[in-house]
Amino acid sequence: IITESIATPDTGAVGDQERPKRIFKIIVIGNSHVGKTCLTYRFCSGKFPEKTEATIGVDFREKTLEIDNDNNF
Predict the structure, then answer these.
(1) 54-73, pLDDT tens digit by residue?
(2) Which UniProt keywords are given for this protein, alphabetically ordered (predicted)?
């Protein structure tokens, strides 16, 4: 499941033309012991975790991407 929203920057300076940031929220759902935690950990940190335990509840990760020289992803 992927959702998208746009966060508007709180600019106090007059004339500051920073573009709004696009925020995507991705939910990974699946059976137990299939690698959801490893997949999200690898995407966000660039490496696989050395050791994992079963995730109980929810697990949050965050990553900022720069696409086409635009740091708004």
Answers:
(1) 999 888 999 888 777 665 55
(2) Nucleotide-binding
